[in-house]
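Here is the promised in-class demo. Please do not try to memorize the tokens; focus on the logic of going from shape to residues.
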């Protein structure tokens, strides 16, 4: 069982999941192994805020809300749209 986002990544973007020696193994489309954990993040939140401010972005706890009725953002829906499989044009 995986979330909608990762289900799309596996089925539409070429990632693979295999059971090897009692452990799950995740591979990218180029067959390289996906590490169990990402490298630790570095930096300071203040630097990120400064970068966004210089770019004219004003991000706060309400930024991710929609402008119409204040509904919460449906992240699965948005990521599903952003990760739609590439369309291959029909041959002429």
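The designed amino acids, position by position:
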């Amino acid at each position: 069982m995986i979330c909608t986002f990762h289900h799309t990544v596996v089925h539409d973007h070429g990632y693979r999941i295999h059971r090897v020696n009692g452990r799950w193994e995740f591979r990218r489309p180029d067959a390289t192994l996906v590490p169990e954990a990402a490298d630790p993040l570095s930096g300071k939140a203040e630097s990120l805020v400064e970068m966004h401010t210089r770019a004219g972005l004003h991000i706060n706890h309400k930024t991710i809300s929609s402008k119409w009725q204040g509904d919460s953002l449906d992240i699965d829906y948005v990521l599903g749209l952003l990760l739609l499989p590439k369309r291959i044009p029909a041959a002429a």
